[in-house]
Amino acid sequence: xxxxxxxxxxxxxxxxxxxxxxxxxxxxxxxxxxxxxxxxxxxxxxxxxxxxxxxxxxxxxxxxxxxxxxxxxxxxxxxxxxxxxxxxxxxxxxxxxxxxxxxxxxxxxxxxxxxxxxxxxxxxxxxxxxxxxxxxxxxxxxxxxxxxxxxxxxxxxxxxxxxxxxxxxxxxxxxxxxxxxxxxxxxxxxxxxxxxxxxxxxxxxxxxxxxxxxxxxxxxxxxxxxxxxxxxxxxxxxxxxxxxxxxxxxxxxxxxxxxxxxxxxxxxxxxxxxxxxxxxxxxxxxxxxxxxxxxxxxxxxxxxxxxxxx
Length: 310
Prior knowledge:
Layout: E1 4-15, E2 20-32, E3 37-42, H1 48-55, E4 63-68, E5 71-72, E6 82-85, H2 97-107, H3 112-125, H4 141-152, E7 159-163, H5 171-186, E8 190-195, H6 198-204, E9 207-212, E10 215-220, H7 222-226, E11 231-239, H8 243-251, E12 254-259, E13 262-267, H9 273-282, E14 286-294, H10 297-308
Helix pairs in contact: 2-3, 4-5
């Protein structure tokens, strides 16, 4: 069973009196595999949220189609197997956490002891048991995001769709959300989430897709997309290197930055490193650190976004 499949999915809006056309999602072809965490990346306005709305039936495609769990997205019943957290959800702030989850469980036809047990399990998962009777209006941003995740899981979905789940969170809140997503993967769930926070993606995603102006530029595992061993530069920090040694380092092609008693030199050509270390030794310098930098997801993302905006 394929949790999510898109074929030629397209959305075009008509704007203003002149009926100008705006192509927001442009012929997306994509498959998300069972049990994987898929990061749907893109700059603000790339079309991520519109794509999600198309998948959930909140918007109608202009062309193309998609399937959720091998059933057409027009099939309303398949939504029973989907959990969703929007980027800016509205919560009934006068409800407590327990009442909030109970309300959403009842919308899915749950009730009685089954629902009570499910609410307890979810509050435990998102570490909110102590706040179960606290009104949502008193929740922090991170707490609201966690209770929103619990809401998205109340129906025990097979596919979980999250729109910018780390947006606006501090580092602790982001780590908590990441931990929950990884826990869901361990349970065999499939997670599809949109984001532009790249460090989180590199930590937890099995595969990613980069969306630029409504079109997919790159899809695949991160190590395949960025390369497993390509070193783009080497950063070297030394102490006690005299000016003559610094000038030799510059002639070798290093970019020099002085930091107190230390000198940081960025070398773009890995092959030059042995020659530079020889300079340090000959002039009595002391090597503090040598850090190779590999091509990152951020490098790929900026390259693809640059392509899309030219």
